[in-house]
Amino acid sequence: EKVKKTQQKEIENVTSVTGVRQIELWRRDDLQHPRLDEVAEEVPVALVYNGISHVVMMASPKDREYFALGFSLSEG
Length: 76
What we know:
alpha+beta, 2 domains, 2 helices, two-stranded antiparallel ribbon, sulfurtransferase activity, two-stranded antiparallel sheet, Cytidine_deaminase-like
């Protein structure tokens, strides 16, 4: 499957962003011309306090420390 030249340039110019990946998006009404789109990736994050597991939540891998701090302050 060929990617248009403009799409190829987009692929080359993309900087690596934590928690985001590019996919080819196919539209039903235009199957001949896929386009690129970005999708947020999430990973399971377990929060453990004093050796006791309290929660496992899905979150972006970026800024996990801020996520844990925010959860701890608001829920703890």
